[in-house]
From TrEMBL:
SMART domains: HDc (SM00471). It holds the Pfam family HD. NCBIfam families: PRK13480.1. The keyword Nuclease applies. This is 3'-5' exoribonuclease YhaM. It comes from the Bacteria.
Length: 311
């Protein structure tokens, strides 16, 4: 059976899906409805449930598995699921959350082993100790958390997948530009998004925590670096530089960075992060697009559709 994101407009749907998000709304004429984000291993899709009531809100909530009957339709250049029938899955049907949870194509154990190899390339003892300390502290969450609730690497072990992909890219860039400090590039890549293990709730029905909404992963990570340095008795310029790299990795204030990059490694880390996030979105969109056709509109990429050549 095709995954939900691999179906084309007009194709029928009859399958089990996991509710990732459920939000209620009201139409312009005052009728209640719900917007559901439904997922299987291929990814997620939006659906509307019309004429809802309190019972629907209690039944159809995040982490609930449902069986959907309906069809795919095109809504403003993006696939949407039109629900015709919906019911909660029965225990005897034997469908579990893990059967429907998207995850990294590379096993998390392999990814973590690759990440740890980069520890041996960090020569500065202060940077090495801080980086190892923080990763050891959050290892259990790091290996299973997504990198986001939507858009890029928004699947189980997506955060680890993102970090390892960035490390590979960082290594190649450091080979091309020897003036870059590898210690700062590697440590910056490894640490820049670890705050997401506190910002997000986890790989199932991913949402933002209270701490995530109020502080965000950047502020959380800067605090973690300071705390780690204090507990390890480290008080050098490296601590300030690591904090700056994390603070500035979104590149611009309007993109969520409290500071713009002011050292070359911070500037390069921003580009590496951006390249990997964009490539992840493009690869996934193009994978479900036939040659000679356009992808659905990708909101984080200026709401553009991308053409997939025939050759």
């Amino acid at each position: 059976m095709k995954g939900i994101t691999q179906l084309q407009a007009g194709e029928p749907v009859s399958q089990f899906l996991l509710i990732k998000q459920a939000t209620k709304g009201v139409t312009t004429v005052g009728k209640p409805f719900m917007t559901l984000i439904l997922q299987d291993k291929s990814g997620d899709i939006e659906a509307k449930l019309w004429d809802t009531n309190d019972d629907h809100e209690k039944m159809y909530r995040p982490e609930v598995i449902v069986h959907i009957g309906g069809e795919i339709h095109d809504y403003r250049g993006k696939n949407q699921l039109r629900i015709k029938q919906i019911r909660i899955a029965k225990p005897e049907e034997g469908v579990g959350i893990n059967d429907l949870l998207p995850s990294s194509t590379t096993p998390k154990e392999e990814l973590f082993e690759e990440l740890t190899q980069f520890f041996f390339e960090i020569k500065n003892p202060n940077i090495s100790r801080i980086t190892r300390y923080i990763i050891k502290k959050h290892q259990n969450e790091l290996i299973v958390f997504p990198a986001a609730s939507k858009n890029h690497h928004d699947y189980a072990s997506g955060l680890l997948d993102h970090v390892v992909s960035m490390l590979r890219l960082g290594k190649s860039i450091c080979d091309l530009y020897p003036s870059l400090n590898r210690d700062l590039i590697y440590a910056g890549v490894i640490l820049h998004d670890v705050g997401k293990v506190k910002e997000l709730t986890g790989p199932i029905a991913t949402a933002y925590t209270v701490e995530g909404n109020l502080l965000g992963h950047i502020s959380i990570m800067v605090d973690e670096i300071g705390q780690a340095a204090k507990e390890l008795g480290i008080d050098g310029e490296e601590v300030v530089i690591l904090k700056h790299i994390v603070l500035s990795h979104h590149g611009k204030e309007e993109w969520g960075s409290p500071k713009k990059p002011m050292i070359q490694e911070a500037e390069i880390l921003h580009y590496i992060d951006n390249i990997d996030a964009k490539m992840n979105m493009l690869t996934r969109a193009l994978d479900k697009t036939k040659p000679g056709e356009f992808t659905e509109r990708l909101f984080p990429l200026d709401n553009r559709s991308f053409y997939k050549p025939n050759f």
